[in-house]
Write a structure and sequence with these properties.
The chain is built from 8 helices and 13 strands. It is of the alpha/beta class. Strands 1, 4, 5, 6, 8, 9, 10, 11 and 12 form a 9-stranded mixed sheet that branches. The protein has a two-stranded antiparallel sheet with strand order 2-3. A two-stranded antiparallel sheet has the order 7-13. Strand 2 and strand 3 form a beta hairpin. The mean pLDDT is 95.
């Protein structure tokens, strides 16, 4: 199984930090998010490779990975794919990794998430071949990607401000962590869905738009993670929250 880390975007909402650095190099507890990903993913036996999709200030990410490899002396394989159109939608970043998606089972990951090891292990170990992580305890602010479930199956994903996520017929809705496990036998359908959206001119949409279409035809399950500390980092105040609340919780519970 491979992990595909989407780290190409500019991260406008995290300015001024991202004026000079890619988002995944923000520090939480004296370690960058990128180093935390590397430490954690390299410790999971099922993951044999990390593919990082880069774009904005990619040289800094490559340098950081090289420094981590030297310092850790880890044999963990890290490769790169380049999205030259990183200022457009994240669908282009995921599409850039299409050859990896069809070659092996993959975990698709946003790079701006702070999380404990057990959260990733829960996704890797899930019996669902296609699987979301769903935080049923999250509160809506309008920005969250909400995963909507009916009869035990994840059937819809969209921003929490969208009326479709409020539909009363859903059995459960919760915030998606930004990680999705994809079975290689179904991956060609997701690649074709992304290609279709891009050919329609929808190259500025988020990759979840393709997942939303994919999950209508290809069964996708979910694993609840409302019991675990994690956070997405979009704004400067999210960095402060991560430092003040989430990281201490992870460390106190021995979940790092």
């Amino acid at each position: 199984m491979k992990a595909v880390l989407l780290a190409a975007g500019v991260g406008d909402r995290l300015r001024p930090f991202t004026d000079n650095h890619p988002k995944c190099l923000v520090e939480v507890g004296k370690k960058t998010l990128l180093v935390r990903h590397l430490d954690l993913l390299s410790s999971i036996a099922e993951l044999g490779e990390l593919v990082i999709v880069v774009g904005y200030r990619e040289d800094q990410i490559r340098d950081a990975v090289a420094a981590w490899s030297r310092a850790s002396a880890s044999p963990f394989k890290v490769t790169f794919e380049v999205n030259p159109e990183y200022k457009k939608g994240s669908i282009l970043s995921l599409y850039t990794a299409k050859d990896h998606l069809v070659a092996d089972d993959c975990v698709i990951m946003d790079a701006d998430v702070l999380y404990p090891r057990v959260l990733m292990q829960r996704l890797v170990d899930s019996p669902h071949k296609n699987c979301f992580l769903l935080d049923e305890s999250s509160e809506r602010t309008g920005e969250e990607m909400m995963v909507c479930v009916k009869d035990g199956r994840a059937l819809h994903i969209d921003r929490s401000r969208k009326e479709s996520t409020f539909d009363e017929h859903w059995d459960l809705t919760g915030e998606g962590v930004g990680f999705f496990k994809l079975d290689r036998h179904d991956s060609q359908a997701l690649v074709q869905t992304m290609r279709g959206l891009i050919e329609e001119g929808q190259d500025r949409v988020e990759y979840e738009a393709a997942l939303d279409r994919f999950m209508k035809d290809y069964p996708s399950g979910y694993e609840p993670v409302g019991d675990l500390p994690w956070t997405e980092i979009d704004f400067i105040e999210d960095v402060e929250k991560a430092q003040r609340e989430v990281l201490p919780h992870i460390e106190e519970q021995g979940l790092a």
